[in-house]
Amino acid sequence: MSADNTTPARPPQGPHQPRWAWWVVGIVIPVVGILVTVLMNGPGSSDDKAADDTDTVRPTTSADEKTATTPPPTKSPAADRVLYGPDEVKVDLSGGGAMYIDLDTSEPLLSGSDIKGADLIYQTTGDDPTLYTPDSALTLAPLAGSGDAPAPTASECADAVESNGASTGTAQRGGRFCLLTGEGRVAYLRVVAVPPGRGVGRLDVTVWDTPAA
């Protein structure tokens, strides 16, 4: 038998791919890989969100809870400091004459004779006693309204003396007065009772330790 010199048949091959197609594949695959990487690591990625949560979230302390639940304090006006009253002061003029009243003490000081530091003089001059200020100082201010009207504040009394200060006033029942004392305090006087002629008069008195200024 003679040697078979026939070349073996090659398996059939598919259609031949053009060379430019491999160039396209070589470019597209890296580009797709880059896009996937960018999308995974972009601003909206889960890793970045977790990092943001870690940066912004911190443990809540007791101070934070107090700030969140407690409203800020509100400022309230300072209360007027009261030196005396409101309380009733009896002015005994049974023997006639005048009564000198000092309101710059812990309790009003009354004397039938002139005293140093007197702020008001209560004197009988007929049916209705008269209130005087020493040296005719314009420190006594009558207030409108009867004794049933609300009592003024220290500031309101100080304003009344400044705008309507006088040196005298008639002590009729229900009459109301503001007074500036010799030491700069503010007082409120309400006439509670007036005796017919000579007798005991009654004043409701409040003295504030707050300076008029």
Secondary structure elements and their pairing?
Elements: H1 19-41, H2 46-56, H3 62-69, E1 82-92, E2 98-102, E3 109-111, E4 120-123, E5 130-132, E6 140-143, H4 154-164, E7 168-170, E8 176-180, E9 186-193, E10 200-208
Antiparallel strand pairs: 1-10, 2-3, 2-4, 4-5, 5-7, 6-8, 8-9, 9-10
Structural key phrases:
single chain, 213 residues, alpha+beta, five-stranded antiparallel β-sheet, 26% strand, rod-shaped, transmembrane
Report what the structure shows.
The N and C termini lie far apart (143 Å). It contains four helices and ten strands; from the N terminus they run H-H-H-E-E-E-E-E-E-H-E-E-E-E. It is 25% helix and 26% strand. By secondary structure, it is α+β, with helices and mostly antiparallel strands. The protein is rod-shaped. The chain has a domain at 82-208.
